User: Fold these one by one.
Assistant:
Number 1:
Amino acid sequence: MSSELEASPFKPEEAIDLSHHLSALAKARQTSPLKGLFRYWGRPGLISLAGGLPSPAYFPFSDISANVLLANSFPVEREQDSSSFSWLWKLLGGAKERTTSVTIPKYSTRPEDLNLATWTGMSKGLPQLQKIVQEFSDKVYDPGYKNYQTLLHAGNTDGWSKVVITICNPGEGVLVSKWTYPSAMAAMQPYNIKPVPVDIDGQGMRSDALRTILTEWDAEARGMPRPRVIYAVPIGENPTGTTTRVARKKEIYQICVEDDPYFVLQEGTYVPKSQRARHGQAPAAGPDDEKKFIESLEPSYLKFDYQGRVIRLDTFSKTIAPGCRLGWYTCNPLFAERLERASETSTQQPCGFGQSLVTATLLEWGYEGYIRWLKALRLQYTMRRDFFVDCLAEEFQLTVAPGLTGSMWEGSQVYHGFAKPQRSLTGYFNEKTPTMSNRLFSFVPPTSGMFLKVHFDQHPSFATLGAESLEMKLWIEIAEAGVLFGPGAMFSPTGDWTSETSGHYRISFSNLENDEMKKAVEIFGKTLRKFMGAL
Amino acid sequence: MSSELEASPFKPEEAIDLSHHLSALAKARQTSPLKGLFRYWGRPGLISLAGGLPSPAYFPFSDISANVLLANSFPVEREQDSSSFSWLWKLLGGAKERTTSVTIPKYSTRPEDLNLATWTGMSKGLPQLQKIVQEFSDKVYDPGYKNYQTLLHAGNTDGWSKVVITICNPGEGVLVSKWTYPSAMAAMQPYNIKPVPVDIDGQGMRSDALRTILTEWDAEARGMPRPRVIYAVPIGENPTGTTTRVARKKEIYQICVEDDPYFVLQEGTYVPKSQRARHGQAPAAGPDDEKKFIESLEPSYLKFDYQGRVIRLDTFSKTIAPGCRLGWYTCNPLFAERLERASETSTQQPCGFGQSLVTATLLEWGYEGYIRWLKALRLQYTMRRDFFVDCLAEEFQLTVAPGLTGSMWEGSQVYHGFAKPQRSLTGYFNEKTPTMSNRLFSFVPPTSGMFLKVHFDQHPSFATLGAESLEMKLWIEIAEAGVLFGPGAMFSPTGDWTSETSGHYRISFSNLENDEMKKAVEIFGKTLRKFMGAL
């Protein structure tokens, strides 16, 4: 897509007028903190007495280093036993990890090499890392226009909070999925920027619902102007785990902030254990060639962005280490400049230790090595997802059916959980035929974490206690039994409570080993069956 | 001071009402993002499926490590040659640095030990680092009330920007020194929070000027309510290098944000080279005992803060490494809670790599070692400051006189620079007697960097060109000759241009080696004399 547009770089003055999408706050930011200094700043040979930085002679670190796993530490294809046990064993137990050492010295012999002495004062971040993320956005997202920019931020939460105050004014609304990431909503709240929920289906935000909201918008009745901004988590949205596909993305394409920490972890469809052997290698493992791997992933909104409408947020949290607080924007130069000014008066730059170590690792691996690492990572999480669903299939009787039209699961294969027939000394009991009316819970096998709905209308006291109270009671009982779920209500952007929205729990298993998953599902099963009177 | 108050911890409801100092933005922040989760979050033995963090098994880092200088790497007393040359030689050249290695493994055997696997999800930061900064604030600042809190932030610029939106509303004013740190002003600008400059003298902000402004405040004429907040840089204020002493601090004590990156680097008074031998050990070296060292420093505003009015910003930028983006607040629990919420929706937590490495270093050194390190650091910067002023004394004829009453240098010893008598083949010329009327420039020997005023009224074209134009012309000529100064106008909070404020340059030498300082002063001397027609 970008090839045909490469000759026509994005120019705000020729394309749509993006400047009116800047908030008053963003417009009021200073033009550049260096003012007249720019002319001479960084000129080689100049003795600078303008900066005021401490002398690197007094940094206590002579060097920092790390032992880093090789890029091919994990397999990209499922092994015969279809679990990650053997790899975990190698990693945690007996077998030696295969690592390589990276070191960043305080002073480098060549100025362009990584060093600790020249870390600072660069709100754009390390030049080497800038180059790496630019190459990644270029090759992996292949944006629909040429002169997009990349800019480091301190993790997607930081990235989003700066975007909010860059493109939204107080009192305005932001279009969001009906279930979405609560911290993103919390960042808007103090500025009185309100979430406007849009109905979802198995692909996340519905384009038809979006169109209806926008065309029928009544500013007076709503108490706010028609929203100009969409907050989208198109891959593995938290909590629902939904993924928006190409056709839908093209429909939604608009001024859109794409918060996409899970892009490279797209896990594909869950295939029940019994059928996985027939499928041979899992679909999630993907082709071995790096270009084919990228083509196997749902593309970013950037790919269709020929007008510079998309601000994409990327993070190293899901692929390197969550506490590193390091990620990047990909967006048009107008927005990038305003976001850089926002960084200068807040975070300044991501931590130099983190930048150095991540950069040294990525330089050591190279682009191909990083893609290889990501491919394997996706398989690991896919196997965890599969194992978790396998556990549910053992603990309950699962049936599968297409999601109902008009429901949040339209377009997905929905799994329904029933109490298994119990065997007593004298025979079976509780041999209800699985029907929609005696389901205990439903879910769609997701990316990363999943959003499970318990059918409290099956509870004996539903009429008297109501769904809200039952949801809280069950959550506490599960916690008291030793397993902590995320309460669904946290993920409702407006905190609305309806019979349709009630009964949800967010279940994240990305950080659990198989034995913990198995134990958690057993506890959940026991507690749920008892709670629902389905023993 | 704190001992008598220790029995009466600060309680907002009993002391002054601090809650009305919270901005509308701060009040609108969510109460806690974890909501109901709090009850069970982190309970030992619970299997948590509520979080959603990646598995540490897939962090590519097996361990990170660093070679760290020993805490006693630098001397705390001046050596005979009174320069840092010998130490620099050891550091950069022949002699081997004395270092120790610190390593943070991915997994630790004891959960309370530093490790990479449990870095994340802690917006308060690493518990070990929390403990260290709490101990530091306790022992070094000795706050005037008991239940103050410390909270990590991502560097003082980040810390201040969060404070701005926590205690200021749009349209309000913040009291600042007449010359102050421009990035702090830039953080206020988009929110339409306006700097209200207060006259300064040799100790920084004047308490009498402050009182006059506040008592005579006319909200209508000023277009804003009477300010409630002071932004203070009490030690080595940028750009003036002034330090506020105890009596003044007690007068100013108020709701006050204390941005104090230079606290431990207080360099004491400059003593001319010729007199330093007589003084024996430099005053800056300070006593060897850690408690005496702390007592030798001007205390923090916290020391007099018995009502929880002060938010202190500390940073590791000046003492460990500037790019680490790591520091901490010390303030009352009410403000700390709101600031923590602000972190959760932006930076979340400082980078885990940086936290781990700084923490491991401080644990390795211990509190006494860190104080030992700081003491030596202060001496190193003092020697650089002394060497720089020595260079000026060689390049120019310097005289010293008390600052004029009512001027920004009242209470300081001001150095005035004159062209040295030049020797020709036939004798001396240019033998003007140094008087105020033929000074080229003036300055006060500062902490860290200094603010030098050139007397453009001595320039032959002063009447026709004016000070503003001459200031810019000289700045360019110095830059073209190879030395970059900070233009003074950058540091004017309101950008006012008067004959009193004109002619200033900020000169920072903290990051220069002696030979560079010498060269810079020679270039400055040559350029200035030529420019001023004083050859």
Number 2:
Amino acid sequence: MKEYYLGLDLGGTKILTGLADQEGNIIARSRRDTEAAAGEETIIKNMILTIEDVLAKAEVNKDQIVSLGIGSPGPLDATKGIIIENANLPWKNVPLVKKMEAALGIKTLLKNDANAAALGEKWFGAGRKVDNMVYITISTGIGGGAIIERELFNGTNDNACEIGHTVIDPDGPLCGCGKHGCLESFASGTAIGKRAREAAAKGLSKEMLELADQIVEDINAVICAQAAYQGDEVAQEIFKKAGYYLGIGLGNVINIFNPEMIILGGGVMKASDLFLAEALATMKKTALSGPLEIVSVKEAELGSDIGLMGAVAVAMEDRLVKNG
Amino acid sequence: MKEYYLGLDLGGTKILTGLADQEGNIIARSRRDTEAAAGEETIIKNMILTIEDVLAKAEVNKDQIVSLGIGSPGPLDATKGIIIENANLPWKNVPLVKKMEAALGIKTLLKNDANAAALGEKWFGAGRKVDNMVYITISTGIGGGAIIERELFNGTNDNACEIGHTVIDPDGPLCGCGKHGCLESFASGTAIGKRAREAAAKGLSKEMLELADQIVEDINAVICAQAAYQGDEVAQEIFKKAGYYLGIGLGNVINIFNPEMIILGGGVMKASDLFLAEALATMKKTALSGPLEIVSVKEAELGSDIGLMGAVAVAMEDRLVKNG
């Protein structure tokens, strides 16, 4: 009997599920609205519908599935399989693994989305050939996942690699976590949007205001990037400064993890030409020469499939470590 | 035939060598001046003399020795067994492992002193009962070593866990590494001494000047601590500020490594009552609640034997991981 794996990328607005063969090739996929507002029951029902859908499409039976991997925004307790809280989903302390296993009879594994993405890039993306790497996602927030000797570094209670919440300047801006000067408060999409609104409110950027129909509150990182591409120097400077702080974060990651590779992903990377050069220059000044010598920085390869392939990698990790 | 292990703590002024049984009990020890100024040949000769000394004292034969562990200040290449450079020893690119193996016929293993100390505290000190811990030494500099799932985390080319050279404020003081605002530039003994001299030069502390016979250049962290204990508020403030920055570093370490335990060692810890409370308070504000919940902070237990027991742990690591 052929064996298969399921990966489920649980997002605030959509669920993307894939059925993978033993090599991690996606042979069927299904996408569905999360319907987060409708609550726990509905969300889980929608998750199960995507799974039934891929099984039907591929004509695969449940008992051919080795395991289901789920990638979800955190904070969550991966060991206990519980989603503790979630900014975009209306649930708290949901024993998701237990519920999915009860509903499907399939062994289920849960990881936070950054850790899942790290596994995805390690096994199916830019990190295929390395044993030690750190994946960093620059998105609404900044998250990370480290692979050490080919395995995900979970930490004692699955909280390792919260790179976004390392303080790189205690006098820096207020972060969503309540601290000042976290990497995330300088270099995330949220931070860039905030800097952009501040600049626009001061009358420093007509371009951004125009792009937002004169509504300061509507300015975000995307508009800031558009303005920067149109030549707005204030917007360009905002990205450059974010790049500077990201570079300090990358340098610190190198000095701590001494990885072979750093892989950068997340939505903000779509505008990487606005900040990456600055980030790399600062990184080179921040990192010690020993670990800098052997590290390379790559962009994530999985694109919009990173959540899905990450979830598949969560399901397959044991097999991949053994055979891969 | 009974088996034994050798540990050698190589310092800039002294060599301390111990012979350990299979449980890591020291059954003979030998201490000798390094004679660093006399050069490479002499240093290695002195190392060998301490080894011959412990073997003679314990009436143990060379062929009963499983391995020799050496802890040395870095930077070094542990995998290749080469000391790359050293601030206190007059050598560069010395293939120390090869030379010791050629001279003694004993398998030799080399680690930097902070990593060796981490192994020592893991197996023989405060970390005996934990699987995931980070050891941080606060001394002339600030170094670290992480134990992940009971094994030393080396990084790709043995440069992992350089916590002292993570930037926590890019506008901070100049560090020995050439960067600004490394943790080491705020909270090491060297940093405290610098802040103390700056304060004394400004006429802010008569006590420190008195303790240094009015010679500003002679003020160091030890004098600053003496003045602080005598009630000098400027000196107390210097330690408190170092503690604040150390706390940021500890919080960052928690957010990255998610360890069960952080162990603090190094000479500056002798004055821990001057800064540790501030460090822990800041750490609690810096760390995320998830990883903070499960971490404890302890002082190193091995005291002046940490270098020696670290070296023994380097020699015994394979055995300890298997049996311990």
